[in-house]
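Why do we bother with a discrete structure alphabet at all? Because it lets us treat a fold like text: something you can write down, compare, and reason about line by line. To make this less abstract, here is a complete entry for DUF4418 domain protein. Read it the way you would read a sentence in a foreign language you are learning: slowly, and without expecting to understand everything at once.
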Amino acid sequence: MEVKLLNGKVTKVIGGLGAALGLLIALTPFQLAPVCQRLLELTSGKMTHMRCHYTGQGEVFLGIVVVLVSLIYLFNTSIPAQKALGGVLMILGCAVIILPTNLGIGVCMNPMECHTTARVLYVLGSLTIIDGLVAVFQEKLPVSPSKDIKA
């Protein structure tokens, strides 16, 4: 059984972009566009973080997983494995988008800082889905022939 290999430049772009997006996803909730830092007082008098804090923790985890999957993609050479990893990137991108919504953990109900965080994560998650789509359909990408100069 022969395994097809893909153009190295396309693989590097897809894997590198995925790793960069994963790093941005991991850094967004607490560094780039921080979630709310206030605490919520419960009826018992105890203080706890708001739900956007826990969404941020989940997004950091998802960002780290996106980086790892992208690095595995980058160093893998078989097309079937790369397509499967592209599918995983698409699923992770969907998870990045869903987590700040009410389907996931969510963010604060009132417009606060965490709503900006959610908007940034929607964009990053969408770009991760597009990166995964390109990885899945990588064989259909037009690749220009090499222009070697022979003297």
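What the structure line is telling us, in plain words: The beta strands are 39-41, 47-49. The chain has one domain: 8-137.
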